[in-house]
Write a structure and sequence with these properties.
With about 325 residues, the protein is an alpha/beta fold. The protein folds into two domains: about 1-120 and about 290-320, Isopropylmalate Dehydrogenase, CATH 3.40.718; about 125-280, 3-Layer(aba) Sandwich (Isopropylmalate Dehydrogenase), CATH 3.40.718.10. It has helices at about 15-25, 40-45, 70-80, 85-90, 105-115, 150-170, 190-200, 225-250, 255-265, 265-275, 300-315, 320-329, and strands spanning about 1-5, 30-35, 55-60, 100, 125-130, 140, 175-180, 205-210, 220-225, 285, 290-295.
């Protein structure tokens, strides 16, 4: 399986993207097309004793790069030969099974819509965020692709998220929750109250409203919200995790006995850190476009890129596009 990697995307590209691709090739039965500036990519490959013309890794030229802070839609249209666009064209033309990018998220979303288009019947794509909690984890969507939503959008998000968690993570009849300000049916704004009724009448395994504090409890596998609310919730969660570990390190260093205690718990603390680290699952899906698109954190290092490529391979092999299309019909 060939995965197209936007090798120029991310804060640490192309050094970490190339390194991550080579890790994925060694550990996973996959081939990678590195899309970007040829000279820069060949130089990085040479540092690792590789070239861009081997069966497992090849360089696909792209003459332009979309910066991390460029206006997304404008950059995508003006830079037609960007690494994002060229990588997506490989998927569009059937050469690659999926694309992975740690580049400008807005640009990846805009380019995916422009190059791949939406799945038939899908009104808006949704960006997911994965939380490694419970047996299968939790997929929250939308977390930023659509700030303003209609009820029908959220219902489709729920269907797509349910299929993704079932196909990629093996959750049987994933439990779907609607993010709201209370568990009771009548809680929330006009949007959530309307969506509640529609999800209740759907064939999904809808379990009702969930509050923000319950996302990490493992009581659902899919959490649905509009992109504005979802993005705020996810960013708050990321900030709390960073705050917790920062305060823990500061507290441990205040007393000798605290440091001694931390030595006894070092393996447990490292395990907890790994479990909460986005690098362990690599990237999140953009669902609703006509192709498998995995978007990574802009700060991604090689480990995250490697795992994102693995996730892309699993998603492509799972048949989620066909399942979503059949579900919509």
């Amino acid at each position: 399986m060939l995965i197209a990697l936007d090798a120029m995307g991310g804060d640490h590209a192309p050094t970490e993207t190339v390194k991550g691709a080579l890790l994925a090739i060694r550990e996973t039965d996959v081939e990678v097309a590195l899309v970007g500036l040829p000279d820069a990519l060949e130089a990085e490959l040479a540092r690792h004793g590789h070239s861009g013309s081997t069966p497992s890794v090849r360089v696909v030229p792209a003459s332009e790069v979309v910066g991390m802070h460029e206006p997304p839609a404008q950059a995508v249209r003006q830079k037609r030969q960007s690494s994002i666009n060229e990588a997506l064209r490989l998927v569009k033309e059937g050469e690659a099974s999926a694309i992975v990018s740690a580049g400008n998220t807005g640009a990846v979303v805009a380019a995916a819509l422009l190059v791949l288009g939406r799945l038939g019947g899908i009104k808006r794509p949704a960006l997911g965020a994965y939380f490694p909690t419970g047996r299968y984890g939790v997929l929250a969507l939308d977390v930023g692709a659509n700030a303003d939503c209609k009820p029908s959008y959220l219902v489709q998000f729920a269907h797509m998220g349910s299929i993704y968690m079932e196909r990629v993570y093996g959750a049987k009849r994933p439990r779907v929750g609607l993010l709201s300000i209370g568990e009771e049916e009548g809680k929330g704004n006009a949007l959530t109250r309307e969506v509640y009724g529609r999800l209740q009448r759907s064939a999904l395994n809808f379990v009702g409203n969930v509050e923000g504090k319950e996302i990490m409890n493992g009581e659902v596998e899919v959490v649905v919200s509009d992109g504005f609310t979802g993005n705020v919730a996810v960013k708050m969660g990321e900030g709390m995790a960073e705050f917790m570990f920062r305060e823990l390190r500061k507290s441990v260093n205040e007393r000798l006995r605290y440091r001694l205690g931390a030595l006894l718990m070092v393996d447990a603390l490292r395990g907890m850190r790994r479990r909460l680290d986005y690098a362990e699952y690599g990237g999140v899906p953009l669902l609703g476009v006509n192709g498998v698109v995995i978007i990574c954190h802009g700060r991604s290092h090689a480990q995250a890129i490697k795992n994102a490529i693995r996730t892309a391979k699993e998603a492509a092999a799972s048949g989620i596009l066909e399942a979503m299309q059949a579900d919509l019909k």
